[in-house]
Design a protein that fits this description.
The protein is an all-alpha fold. It has a single domain, classed as ABC transporter involved in vitamin B12 uptake, BtuC, CATH 1.10.3470. The chain is built from 14 helices and 2 strands; from the N terminus they run ααααααβαααααβααα. Strands 1-2 form a two-stranded antiparallel ribbon. Helix 4 packs antiparallel against helix 5 and helix 5 packs antiparallel against helix 11. The longest helix has 40 residues.
């Protein structure tokens, strides 16, 4: 009897993984199909350089999507990442600015750049820790908590920048990280780091116990707790992981533009959520993958880029994003229901 239970559990596990692969292939097919359709509608759209630009121009959102995907799979939200992007970027500028500037916005703490970066990441970790505290300790719904911490992080950034931006009195090395190119090409370092992050995330998701625990917690949190899994510690690590990614993204963006801007990262949290949903991540948890999220990002990039090429207004682009999300969720639900008949 015990052996049959194990066998049944293994069959369920294999079937679940098969469903994930099935949805990922479906999402990839949709991305390719949309790219081909856009190539017919938009002049000069079908170019390898354009396909590369679709990825490189969205490196920040794709990077944020990794942390958001892990949390969604675990059954939690993280809508604070956009605020963390703004906060960490502003902090890195403020910490690195020399003291005694001409005005308040040109005066900082005068820290060495490496220390300014570490301090900014610490600020990002503080937001992640706050998320974990309220979600894990006080059991407040994560969507409410992370909306609150998003506003807290962006509010702090606005206070430091006085609602504007800081872009003067910076050390020479400040703009290096965000504009450094790799291997003698035009590909910038942030894009390479995004690729490395994707590879590491896929390895964690598929090959490490940490990734499997994330799925189990999202699929059945009660059973996971009864099995001895420390759900609180695991979710805490996930929030810290997501905040570190957002912090690094904010630092790299501030380095690229050589400024700390309090409105940077606005709506990035929703774009990260959208690409995860487009990629087949279940909003209820327990299902999805980083690979699917990546193809979801391609879908969103193709739709946005094609809309721009067809000279549609930004208002219509928001509508297209909304329609794409609804259609993706309906298609995935229908495909899985049909497959599991």
């Amino acid at each position: 009897m015990r052996g049959s239970k194990k066998t049944g559990g293994a069959l369920i596990q294999n079937r679940r993984m098969s469903d994930e692969v099935y949805i990922t292939l479906l999402v990839a097919s949709v991305a390719v199909g949309l790219f081909l359709i856009a190539s017919l509608l938009v002049p000069n759209f079908f170019q390898w350089l354009n396909l590369l630009n679709l990825v490189t121009n969205n490196w920040a959102v794709i990077s944020l999507g990794v942390g958001v995907t892990f949390l969604l799979v675990s059954g939690n939200f993280d809508l604070s990442v956009g605020g963390v992007v703004a906060l960490s970027g502003v902090l890195s500028v403020w910490f690195a600015q020399s003291t005694g500037g001409a005005n308040a916005l040109s005066s900082g703490l005068g820290l060495p750049y490496w220390l300014a970066v570490l301090s900014a990441i610490t600020g990002a970790l503080a937001i992640g820790g706050l998320n974990a505290l309220f979600v894990v300790r006080f059991r407040i719904p994560s969507i409410i908590v992370t909306l609150g911490t998003m506003m807290v992080a962006r509010g702090i950034a606005q206070v430091i920048t006085q609602g504007s931006q800081r872009n003067t009195n910076l050390p020479v090395e400040f703009g290096v990280l965000g504009n450094l190119t790799a291997f003698g090409t035009s590909v910038k370092l942030p894009v390479v780091l995004m690729g490395v992050l994707l590879v590491v995330a896929i390895f964690i998701e598929r090959k490490m116990v940490f990734g499997r625990l994330t799925y189990w917690i999202g699929a059945n949190p009660v059973a996971a707790t009864l099995s001895g899994i420390d759900k609180a510690r695991h979710v805490t690590f996930l929030y810290l992981f997501s905040s570190v990614i957002a912090g690094i993204v904010g630092i790299l963006l501030s380095s690229e533009f050589k400024s700390g801007y309090s409105n940077r990262g606005t709506l990035m949290e929703f774009d990260a959520l959208v690409i995860a949903l487009l990629g087949g991540v279940a909003i209820a948890g327990g299902f999805g993958s980083v690979v699917g999220m990546f193809f979801g990002a391609l879908i969103l990039a193709v739709v946005t880029s094609a809309a721009t090429g067809m000279t549609l207004s930004p208002d219509w682009q928001y509508i297209l994003k909304a329609v794409a999300v609804f259609l993706a969720i309906l298609a995935q639900t229908w495909a899985l229901a049909r497959r599991n008949r």
